[in-house]
Design goal:
Layout: E1 3-5, E2 22-24, E3 40-45, H1 51-67, E4 70-75, H2 80-93, E5 97-100, H3 109-117, E6 122-125, E7 138-142, H4 144-158, E8 162-169, H5 175-188, E9 193-201, H6 206-219, E10 226-229, H7 232-244, E11 254-259, H8 262-269, E12 275-278, H9 284-295, E13 299-301, E14 303-306, E15 310-312, H10 316-319
Parallel strand pairs: 1-4, 3-4, 3-5, 5-6, 6-7, 7-14, 8-9, 8-10, 10-11, 11-12
Antiparallel strand pairs: 2-13, 12-15
Helix pairs in contact: 1-9, 4-5, 6-7
Length: 325
């Protein structure tokens, strides 16, 4: 794969009729269709903050190489301004398509308007942005609200509708965090004895998830019997904190999270994680199918939902060998 790096200093999660309307992939109507080997794609990734994000990058990079598409990859190091600078660089270079996995949902309108003026279509992956739909060609995301709701439904069933819950929230400025929070809240609202006693951001990282859980365990000693983490990495950090406090994760405190990465399956096999809701990071094939359609001038759906499922501890041993990430 011809690739290069750019030096740099998860809207609603559920589909609806309006979201599914076709959108023109390219604003540059006069651009001649290109062969895959002639296509240049600029990809601004949030960073490498989690196992999920690493798998997401790898899927996209490997698919670009497979199709001989030139991919300019920019690691934003989890800083919004780094991503904006990278995308501005892609616009200056005149790439054919820009792909953004946004760290934050806000603050993208000026940059997206510049891309549109330059006739460069933008594809959003893993998360949406707060911007008019005509500023991007399409967005590929999981149903984040469903993920949170499914985690809440699972926990309600396991606790007979009675739980004192710690919620480890993802990056607050990311739409995925808000949606996973909303979906979970919707599910447990049906059970008056399910209470979130503390909700704090762990920024989707294992290190911060552990640190936050240590603080909350000390502040709410003896009160907690469940943890809901917005991703597996924070859950794995919380598990470390629970063990350090002399408690048994998965038994004394039930733990449910989102992503379904392989380390989560390992934790389930060990009996430390109870369940994880899948958020599939393998966007590469679908992403580049879409990019090739856009370059050919074909219409693509404005929103594509990447499906997932829930895995419980009892399924982990049989399922882990088939996990690609």
């Amino acid at each position: 794969m011809a690739s290069a790096s750019i030096a740099t200093g998860c809207s609603r999660g559920e589909s609806d009729g309006a979201a599914q309307k076709p959108a023109s992939g390219t604003e540059a109507a006069g651009r001649k269709p290109k062969k895959p080997s002639e296509i240049v794609v600029g990809f601004s990734q949030t960073g490498a903050e989690s196992s999920w994000r690493i798998a997401h990058s790898k899927s996209i990079q490997e698919e670009a190489e497979k199709r001989q598409i030139q991919l300019l990859f920019a690691d934003g190091q989890n800083v919004h301004n780094n991503q904006v600078n990278a995308v501005n660089g892609f616009i200056t270079k005149g790439v054919d398509v820009i792909v953004i996995a946004p760290q934050e949902s806000m603050g993208w309108k000026p940059t997206l308007k510049e891309a549109k003026r330059a006739g460069i279509p933008v594809v959003l992956t893993s998360r949406g942005v707060d911007a008019d739909e005509d500023l991007y060609a399409t967005v590929m995301v999981a149903d984040f609200v469903w993920e949170g709701r499914r985690a809440g439904e699972w926990l309600a069933k396991q606790t007979n509708g009675s739980a004192r819950i710690i919620e480890l929230v993802g990056t607050p400025a990311a739409d995925v965090a808000a949606m996973r929070k909303d979906g979970f809240a919707e599910a447990i609202a049906k059970h008056p004895d399910m209470k979130i006693i503390a909700s704090q951001s762990g920024d989707f990282t294992r290190t911060k998830g552990k640190a936050v859980m240590e603080t909350l365990l000390a502040a709410h000693k003896g009160e907690i019997n469940a943890v809901y983490a917005h991703n597996d990495d924070m859950a794995l950090g919380a598990i470390q904190a629970i063990q350090a406090a002399g408690l048994k994760p998965g038994q004394d405190i039930l733990v449910v999270s989102v992503d379904a990465v392989k380390p989560a399956f390992e934790a389930m096999i060990e009996g430390k994680l109870n369940a994880t809701v899948e958020c599939n990071p393998m966007h590469g094939p679908l992403l580049f199918d879409t990019i090739e359609k856009i370059v050919r001038g074909e219409t693509v759906p404005k929103r594509t939902i990447v499906p997932g499922q829930i895995f419980e501890r009892e399924q982990a041993a049989a399922a882990i060998s088939a996990r690609p990430y």
